[in-house]
Amino acid sequence: MTGSAGAPAFGAFGVSGLALALPIEAVREVVPLRELTPLPCAAPAVIGAIDLRGVLLPVLDLAQLLAQSVHSGGCVVVMLHAGQLLGLRVDSVGGLFDAVPGSVTRLNTAPGAGAVHAGSLRRSDSDSLLSLLSPAGLCALPGIPLLVDPEPERSGLAAEAAPGPAPAAPSQLLLLSAGGLPLAIHAMAVHATLADPPIEPSPLAHGLCRGVTPFCGQRIPVIDLLALCGLGVQAAPGARQSFVLRTAAGLVCLLVGQVIDVVNADHAQQLALADSATPPSGLIRGLLPATALPAGVRARAPNADGHYLLLDADALRTAPGLTGFAAAAAAACAGDPAEGERDFFSARADDACVQSLLVYQICGQAASPVEQIREILPWRRDVLQLTGQGPLRALLVNRGQSVPVLDLAELLGAPPVELGRDACVLLVEHLGMAVGFAVPRLHAIECATWQGSQAGHALPAHADAAARELATRRLVRIDSGSDARLLRVLDLAGMAAAWLQCSNTIPASASPLPCRI
Question: What does the angle CA 151 – CA 155 – CA 161 come to, to the nearest 5 degrees?
Answer without folding.
Answer: 105
